[in-house]
## 1
Amino acid sequence: MRTLKYWQAIAEGLVQGMERDPDVFVMGIGVDDHKGVFGTTGEAFARFGPARVFDVPIAEQAMTGLAIGAAAMGKRPVVVHPRTDFLFLATDQMINLAAKWRYMYQGASEVPIVVRSIVGKGWGQGATHSQSLQSLFGHFPGLQVVMPALPRDAKGLMLAALQSRAPVVILEHRALYETEGPVPEAPEVTPIGTAAVLRPGRDVTVVAASAMVLEALAAARQLEPLGVDVEVVDVRSARPLDTETIVASVIRTGRLVVADTSWPTYGLAAEVAALAAERAMGALRAPVKRLGLADCPAPVSLPLERVFYPDSTTIAAECLATVGRAAAELSARPVEESSFRGPY
Amino acid sequence: MRTLKYWQAIAEGLVQGMERDPDVFVMGIGVDDHKGVFGTTGEAFARFGPARVFDVPIAEQAMTGLAIGAAAMGKRPVVVHPRTDFLFLATDQMINLAAKWRYMYQGASEVPIVVRSIVGKGWGQGATHSQSLQSLFGHFPGLQVVMPALPRDAKGLMLAALQSRAPVVILEHRALYETEGPVPEAPEVTPIGTAAVLRPGRDVTVVAASAMVLEALAAARQLEPLGVDVEVVDVRSARPLDTETIVASVIRTGRLVVADTSWPTYGLAAEVAALAAERAMGALRAPVKRLGLADCPAPVSLPLERVFYPDSTTIAAECLATVGRAAAELSARPVEESSFRGPY
Amino acid sequence: MTSKPAPRRGRKRLGSRRRQPAGSTSPKSEFLRRLYYELLRVRRIEEKLALLYQEQEMRTPAHFSIGQEAVAVGVCAALTAQDVIYSGHRCHAHYLAKGGNLGGLVAELYGRETGCARGRGGSVHLTDISVGMVASSAILAQTVPVAVGSALAFKMDASPRVAVTFFGDGAVDEGVFYESLNWAALKRLPVLFVCENNLYATHAPIWVRQPKGTEIYRRAQAFGVPAEKIDGNDVFAVYQSARRAVERCRSGQGPALVECLTYRWLEHVGPLDDTDRGYRSRRELDAWKRRDPVKVAARQLGALGVLTPPAIQEFEAQIAEEIAKAVAEGKQAPWPDPRDLLRHVY
Amino acid sequence: MTSKPAPRRGRKRLGSRRRQPAGSTSPKSEFLRRLYYELLRVRRIEEKLALLYQEQEMRTPAHFSIGQEAVAVGVCAALTAQDVIYSGHRCHAHYLAKGGNLGGLVAELYGRETGCARGRGGSVHLTDISVGMVASSAILAQTVPVAVGSALAFKMDASPRVAVTFFGDGAVDEGVFYESLNWAALKRLPVLFVCENNLYATHAPIWVRQPKGTEIYRRAQAFGVPAEKIDGNDVFAVYQSARRAVERCRSGQGPALVECLTYRWLEHVGPLDDTDRGYRSRRELDAWKRRDPVKVAARQLGALGVLTPPAIQEFEAQIAEEIAKAVAEGKQAPWPDPRDLLRHVY
Ligand SMILES: Cc1ncc(C[n+]2csc(CCOP(=O)(O)OP(=O)(O)O)c2C)c(N)n1
Ligand SMILES: Cc1ncc(C[n+]2csc(CCOP(=O)(O)OP(=O)(O)O)c2C)c(N)n1
Ligand SMILES: [Mg+2]
Ligand SMILES: [Mg+2]
């Protein structure tokens, strides 16, 4: 299969979704400019023009309301936010209206909007350009929340979102944009609400989301030579969460580490740990461990960013701990010098 | 000790806090009208007048920003929302600014605002007048979130909030407003971040929040004749959560039921269950159970409201299950006819 | 699958539910009588609902529009069944004036499965897609941008449909209102903003919330939205203004705003008088009652020779019958089945 | 305990960091020279930072103000050290013009412990409480209501202090801006809204976001906020307008807005030219460069006989020295200790 970068997969999914359904349109800051939201909307703009891909006033709340009102008339609006943090301005429309619409009006109409947003990380993104809101949106019945980690799911979940009856939040991760992977050319949907076991393993389950999936896979590789066999589960959807797949894996391995892109407290890591406590308790052979952001807002300075974000080594250390071994056995992974050039 | 109603305790805490600190002022919809936010601001208005208790334009986002800007200049604003659901409009200011302020500017200044809001329940409050946002606000470092259940803590936590250096969210519960309990006359603080074991018990721990605390106590009474001894822990603060008290209780009883006023998924119930999975796993003798709202927006119609909200009987049934007994042993608690008259 | 609202075409016109009693019979006078009929009908329904509300069997906070009906009726008379409307918490009159099913409203207030939102939405979440009443909601100003979005869809489809948003002077305090004005004007969208300025939000008079000397309609003008302020208690004035605005919208000239000055007779939420609570005076209410939109319309039409006392009596009888039936049915209607609690969540 | 900002009283006036070179010596001309000095200083600092930024050692998205400095300098010259300012993402110039510590800015960009936010905030979260630069933030329009809140505190304390909020034409799209105008006018608060209209938000020209024919300052007027639009590249015009507005504020007459027309020379974020990207033209930039605020000011003062080429040269030398020192120190400054990661969370 040919490979695509994550951003290319998003772009392709969007274009195929727009081909399929003439009611899809895209609006957001800079969707039609030369950068095209880091490359993800440029092709759609080139193909479908300003009637279906257009720039907007910077008014996140109204934009979301507009999307809802257009959706109620049969459109399928895709709203794009260059940073997930801006969504706080849209939470009333998303949670108090879109999420509840079908229920409050009991199916009289539906508002299948798609809200795309990008989670920032590193290079001094700082406290308000780096947040990932899966647990916030996941808490409310009526929304679907997806978090693609691999390029194929970036495309597949985009296509799924464009066909869902529910309002869907897509949380993309900026740190994944340049990662590559196989992506089918056909418009293959990744079903919303399904997790994926990306690597089977016997000893410990790592349930991970978004960018942490790649860290989990790296951790699994780090642990291979030490004889610890890690199963990596990519949640893919934060709501609905694929509880069957997660619980089955935990029951198989008897050990659970959860690695999320947000804070553990009241986070996705808490939800997954709670699932284990409810439904896999008898099988657990070690305490569950949650990993996520350090318990502070995101700092800017590099040495602080380095300790703020968990990585594969942190995950590997916790996996070792669940089998009663010491993190000291791990050789430190060299800090990778990224080719990234600012200002982001 | 004399007894007060919950709303009276709030009113008294507010007045004593305002006496103590001339920088405290109160703003919000209707804080100065004849209803005085269900009685909680009337006395403060009578005592301190319109200079310190005043009505506002209906603009939740700006109001929160104003509070922050006044706090940065040394004031202690108390912002009041008649329903917690309106806070979605203020999440950007609360989470992207107030919560992060001290950290982002590294202590150069602080913005100790107090955000009071009331959680609605029943009598057809419906989907957007009934939400409780503890897990949403609890997820973000930099905020404190309290949820008084008893009148004494309604006062004590109000006083604590007015002395905290952090921005504090107080989630009051409308269904508790007419409940009564002993309240000290002195301005005694309930320390933020401390849970309370309201009833010691041997067999099962019920960790409950806000209105569910009263249901948990009722469940404990229902189970007494059946020989099941329930320990009831009132979380009181959702952030910081008193993990020591919670974990110690779970380790003591070996069983855990969590009862929250919001949805279990990504909720406070998840966080508490996760704590048990991380720190009390070895002691657990039964799967953890989470209780909260049914997984849909709040309906209006009475027969639906009745099944939407868990109550003491639901809690009691789950407690029985943790000790391997059947809910059938419970005699149904009669539906209490409330003396409440609409429209709320 | 999205349900595209496909409003019933050719639904009966305003007031045509029954044959009209005689009087002048030109199409114009027929139309004027229908306006009056509709106005009277909304008034009588709300009065009845307010009465029944006191039995404490409608467990849903209800905001009555008594005194303000001319806005809903006048504006909706300027719309076709294909046009859509949105409203806020005070939405019964808008729902009814757009042709929303009465039985569906009554049953909704009683929390029944036959309610327009099947007892899930309550008084503040009315919908009747078949007549273009898309949604009302309980969060202030929330449906304002939503109406703009529907207008965006109409414009994208080159459809002649128009979207209307009804909101109060309190919603004007919210920032999203201005975001919406800006957007509508920028994209020249066929949306009509109808501000029902009843001088109060809850118990706060407008001067506690908006600077003295400023005008809501002038704010709209600053965004390039043509706007005027009119007597909201004169159903014919409302109709005329709305008609001009809707024509503008339909002909692709973009949005408009109509600020309708009016007054709420009952308490903010609930069925009672509240002039003894201190925030407004009996005097003020009485002055406004002298400008009762129903009586004003009757006087105007009487003077034109278009409406006679017997005609009014016949209207009253028809309306009373319709209401009695809807109430009887609503009270008897089945409750939602608790097993359906989770229906219509994704 | 809250830290009440207690701005250093009697801090040195603008440009007085060094003895000024001769020329006309009246207080007025002295003041005018100081304005020029400040303008030149902000320009040279930003130029140097933009150059250094290309070394990829400042890991923080930075929005340079080159071309727009006259707004910051002109407004801050009308303020006292007790007055406070707030800004958004494009905040270096505001921080500097208000007297913010240069070393603190440079070190912040380098992510060092000696930065004004100790490396936790970065380019978009500047603060120097000692001079009344309270906060800048990266969310559009976020600090607009915050400034209004500080003004509310001043009014409650009957203090003569004034709060200023700097924001762009893009922030004007956000609803909270109007909520803030409404509030400020309603309560007659001593707050000055300064809109730096540089005709673009990111890559979107203003006409893509705001209806043609509308004016930002007129929107403010519709809320009862006195407002005017001025040449934002003329530091003296800005100063005059700001001074009048600040006097209004200080004398209890309420808020004002100044819309300053100006232009950004560099890309939206980052240190480079971007006229080859298609969203704006080299021609347009060149036209604006002919109205370079620094050169305009030099010409004006030269014509008045207040500023001589040798004086400018001496200014340049002083500034270069100050910058060199700050940069050297910033690059050498200690990094935050990772063990302090959780400091200053509650
Ligand atoms: C966002 C939000 N804030 C506050 C409220 C509480 N609230 C309900 S109705 C109302 C007053 C509305 O006033 P107005 O818009 O003038 O409508 P009216 O009731 O006068 O018809 C308020 C403040 C709300 N529903 N939503
Ligand atoms: C709420 C929010 N939405 C979007 C953004 C992304 N963003 C950052 S700067 C900018 C443009 C700002 O334009 P303007 O206010 O005119 O300031 P300028 O950059 O021109 O100085 C945008 C859209 C943001 N930071 N915050
Ligand atoms: Mg009103
Ligand atoms: Mg700009």
Note: Chain B touches chain A through 53 residues (CB under 8 Å).
## 2
Amino acid sequence: MKYAMFWGCLIPAREPNYEVSVRKVMPAFGIELVEMEGTSCCAPFGIQSLDYTSWLALAARNLCIGEEMGLDIVTLCNDCYESLLMVNKMLKADPELKNQVNEILAEVGKEYKGKVDVKNMVDVLYDDVGIEKIKDAVKNPFTGLKVATQPGCHLTKPRRIHFGEREFDVLDELVRATGAETIDYDRRQSCCGGPLRGINDELARDVARMKLISMKNVGAECIVTVCPFCFLELDMSQLEIKRHFKEEYNLPVLHFAELLRMAMGMKLDDWEIKLHRVPLNPLLEGRLQEG
Amino acid sequence: MEVNDEVRIGVFICHCGINIGGVVNVPEVVEYAKTLPGVVYAEDNLYTCSSVGISKIKEGIVKHNLNRVIVASCTPRTHEPLFRSACEEAGLNKYVFEMANIRDQCSWAHMHEPEKATEKAKDLVRMAVAKARLLKPQEEPEIDVTPSALVIGGGISGMTAALCLANQGFKVYIVEKEPELGGMLRHLYKLYPTMQDASERLNQVVKAVESNKDIDVLTSTVVKQVKGFIGNFKVTVEKGNSKTLNLDIGTIIVATGAANFEPIGMYGYKQYDNVITQLQLEQLLKAGQLEKPERVVMIQCVGAREEKGRTYCSRICCMTAIKNAMLIKELYPEAEVCIVFRDLQTYGKEYERCYLDARSKFVQFIKYVQEKPPEVISEPNGKLIVRIYDALLDSEIEVPSDLVVLSTPLIPHEDTKELSQILKVSLGPHGFFFEAHVKLRPIDFATDGIYVCGTAHSPKDTAESVSQAFGVASRAAIPMAVKRLRTEAITAVVDENLCSGCGTCVKLCPYGAIEKDEKGVARVTEVVCKGCGVCAASCPERAIEMRHFTKEQVTAQALAALGRAIA
Amino acid sequence: MANLSEELEPSFMHEVANTPRGKGVLTCIQCGRCSSSCPIARLVDEHNPRRLMEMIILGSRDEVLHTKLPWYCLSCFTCLDRCPQGGDVAEVMFAIRNLAVKEGNVADGFAAQGRSLVETGRIVNPTMMMIKKREKLGLSKGPSTATEEVQKILKKTALDKLIASKRTVKK
Amino acid sequence: MLEKPAVLIIGGGISGIQASFDLASRGIKAYLVEKSPSIGGRMAQLDKTFPTMDCSMCILAPKMIDCSHHPNVELLTYSEVKEVKGSAGNFTVKVIKKPRYVDLTKCTGCGMCVDNCPVEVPNEFDEGLGMRKAIYMPFPQAVPRAMTVDKENCIECGLCEKVCEAEAVDLDQEPEEIKLKVGAIIVATGFEMFDARRISEYGYGRYQNVLTSLEFERLLSASGPTGGHIVRLTDGGVPRRIAFIQCVGSRSQRGELPYCSSVCCTYATKEAILIKEHNPESEVYIFYIDLKVFGKGFQEFVNRAKTEYGVEYIKGHPGKIEENPKTGDLIIRYENTIDGKVREITVDLVVLCPALIPRRDNERLAETLKVELDEYAFFKAKDPLFAPINTNISGVFMCGYCQGPKDIPESVAQASGAAAKAAEEIALTSSKGGVDSGSK
């Protein structure tokens, strides 16, 4: 399977460890990720808050690149996924809107035709690779590890509400494929607080705290997410909460790609471990480094 | 076997499977029954109500020449008719039969004390025997029913009921006090939820009524007097306060509708000329005389759902307001319409959608609470300001408006009181007619032969009135279709020389079955009497007695209960 | 709660409903499921999505567009998930933000994102240190960015002028 | 042509009973077909009825008995309509009598067989809260007062056959097909309850102490699984704080039911008053969007609940319910939209008032009768205002909740209406058909 890889901007700029894990894991399942040339910001909620038309134009421009390559686009970050998916669906459904956008794209010699689809890495792993193949690839299962998953609002809610697509538990099934246990906690479907970073940091931290409390109540040992925003928020806010509320949660946060990589027997390099503000070592000693 | 000869009582005691037999020692009660004076035969069986049990009663009556029968088993409410018809089939009058409830009032109630329950069963049988000795046969009088119906009120309800009865083959008279048929719908423009044109649909119904040869329409006519009872009403009506007519009527349908409340002194009504009611607005719309308003503010629950007085919800005002708002938006799309409400009554299948349609057409909805109602203030330039405490925003807002529309409740017509006295039917707490049972007899009156439908019963919209109108058409058709009615045998009997003419019984009788005659003595119309016993119990002179529950019989039972030997 | 009796503009409801993503405001029946599900409303009294919808319906334009009210929302769609009307509270929030931005009321964080987008074609760019680390690991400097194309587009949609005209916020 | 005018009534709830009784009382034969073992319908499951607080069974049982004893009524319980041919005035109907495995003429409902039956399964009549045997009577006042064998769960041990003194049990009974000739048909199939599981944020089906109102009604009923005692299902304790949530699935445009079910605000008030009567110190909350008080006596009923009983009405539809796994308590997140505050309240028990929806097999019945359904799958009125009881097929009428949301008095009045329309149909078709039915 070949996909046009839309890395977005947050992962390459702040979390290269996520990128490295993806580059290591995906080929192992025969998924070829073709680099996209000349992409741009996907216009996430921040830009959508500024201007509707700019959002459509920027997202459509990125979609055109995928069309020119003749490949469906795969995204990692929830916000890139939501922005590209929604614009793709809206333009396909509304020819009048499509013409408006194409008028703007004409400025840069591009035209949106609606020939490709947008997928998230989670869907690719679940649909194309499949749970069984993932289980077979696992050499170092995390039996007994209590994982609280954070699929993320922008990945799961808009597509379910607007287009009635898939429920939440795709990420849970993938995590269970690595041998770990997933726990249901009450605030599983609620927000990590990330989008308010830079706007109202205390509020973002308090929203994250509600989620951490809910995870701790059911005995979670670590958090697994797929969205870089959720990763940063849930990771950094644990330090801020320790300073401000003097509460310790010690819930290490992992990208699913990292969890899968380790389960497949590959080890994380030191620089990758250091990028996790909540230390991974309680997780690493017990389990990860034998493999 | 003549009844007034020697008393020969047969007692049939039931096990009811384990319900009685599991607690009460039934054979012991049978033996005891045999010792009681007048009892010539007693037996027990597993299920007296089964086909086997019934045939044993019949055989017993014939074999032992019984002229009184007692069954000691369960509740008369469900099984008395069954055992009475068994006695009848064996040639006995069904009123020389008495039941003793040794299940619900004995074995079930004293499940954990079998000995005491058995003793109590004996007491209950002894009481039944004491009464049975004094029982006399009764006859159920039969009356003929004139197959003609009187419909009071020519609105949509009255006309619908009349048409349905006529199509079933009955003669119908419609009495309408206005000079023309139509009632409330004549004043309406469109009907929610389908926005059908009121007068167009109304005229179709009026034409159908006027062209139906079985319906006599008497307009500008009022009911003056009603005498008689179900099937035999003598109704006097007056046409144009000159000609009077006497009609022979079998059943009466009250479909007199309701009036609109005039909110004098509320929200500036009649004080400022651009404060009108929903009905006035509807008439302006109908006549096409509504000038283009800039901003219309409608206020709900004006004079309704009050602390005291008109505490009821008038059901149709929310939907009327939404309908009129949509009509205004259709006529003048840029006009702003704002509905100030307490609780929106958009119930049922269609009305929620009308509410959402209104919202999608930019109609504003503001919620106020009963404690802080809106105020209408007039500006010097004639414009109005509606000051509203928006409960959902917890803040005071001022809405300028050039037309304020008040949604007022339906209230009973003034002449409802008078009609209720003529028909001798009661009115509810708010002056609407009071039905026999709010749940299971919603369109009957307690008095047989008189029925109610439409807004005379309580505020409702066209669809609900029409459904009730068809309903009364069925209720009224029943007596008229069977042509002869058997009425209650257990009725009240007045002793003339004891009656002081105080009239207590006349006031209290729920069925209007007692009247004072010329000599001032209370007279019972037996066919209307239901045998409820209210008059007998409340008569200060002890002048009234109930057949089958005479003073003598009840006293005998009481003495038997106290263990005195039966005289 | 502030007294709203200053000038109410009934046209505000029309304006929001005719703004892209804004028509959901007309389906709101004020049931309260969004405000009781919103993580922010639970922490902060000022933010109440239901009350915001009522304010739009009533037309308190000034109160909504010229204060911090548009900038509390997480855009986490929980309200959208719970709204029985399929109404789009979260979507309406974007419509209000677009209108607020036109009136110069932009949350600082988003204004910064806008500026970075106009200058570099992205909101977040790798620092020099990160670029060195990536090269050390054999990774590219980061995905190639068609900055000029982005700038041409944003000139056409006039986003550049929009961010420049930031005015101070009332509350 | 018809020898004796007859009408088929489908559905033995209060509407079907009233329509049959009206027709029978005026000399028209009424065939009352009921799918379950007994007539009585939803009303039989209720404890009390609003606004008078009459005990539901006390006012229903006499109607059921009068109706079943009437010579002109033929009860066809545990039966279903299979096929309808012909047209107004002359329908031929095929009814399948499902095997009861008990002879109705012999069984007196004494209950010996039930005591000896070893099989226990959840009782549908108690909404699954109580149990019943494989041979059972749905409720003590059932009409006909006879047992029915539920063959799916019966292990054919034959004990019931042995102990039955009336030799009424006959385990190899076969389905029976009956042909009826009727002049008109009345549909009165009532309603079902929306599956509250679909509103996952309220946790029905996951949290034990979240009940539906019909389940709660069974707890309140003396004939119910707890003999009328209100208990928490987790620990059987007496709940002190109980919350009602209105419009669960109703008034919802996102794929559930877009209409208002009309009766929930008032029956929730009734159930709240009953709680206060059972246990005066209990606290009862009703979370609503718009309180529907439009019926006769409803507003006064709510006023009594507020002033006399202290029931608290909160205008605010809760967003979510969370369960404290240790105690089984339920935490409700809501906003009191009157003071704009978002709050949490912990209660012992939550009663959901789910939407009341048309019966699932309305589709099949509509096909059999060739009548149209509306977009909610209620039966469609020919003209909602002026012919609310007619369907699009002449001679086929409808009444009660199957036509649209309404309470018991409206259903009873409409049932009499359907009886009138059926009688009118028979009168018109028979006079057209030459033979004068004599009623003119």
Note: The two ends of chain D are 17 Å apart (CA to CA).
